[in-house]
Amino acid sequence: MDKSENNPNIPDIRKTLVLNAPIEKVWEAVATADGIAAWFMPSDFKPELGYEFTLHAGPFGDSPCKVTELEPPALLAFTWGKDWTLRFELKERDGKTEFTLIHSGWDAEQVTEFNESHRVVRDRMDNGWSGIVEKLRAHVGG
Known about the structure:
Low-confidence stretches: 1-7
Mean pLDDT: 92
Order of helices and strands: HEHHEEEEEH
Distance between the termini: 39 Å
């Protein structure tokens, strides 16, 4: 039986890949406004715990965010909109970097700011993240 049928929480989106780039280069790409804009979306992000910033999602509008965890160069987490949290985990692996993206906050009983169910949006976002993390790979050259 599908766990989500008995539980309002929908599984996190997780994307892990090994990048052929040093951890410092990947950290620069995921923890600076210019870096994030190059592979994800523009923002006024600053790597400061508690910093409130805005992701500019084009036709989907602007989303308020707040940095909730920051441990350079290994961890960055921030809230995204009213429901979600994005977490970027980095681990050094023999001169390469293992990068894991975790998109959490899914709830089968909730709808987004755009009045769509989390279940529908989660499937769309899961597919979207696959392409976005490949943009990160291209950006860091790995």
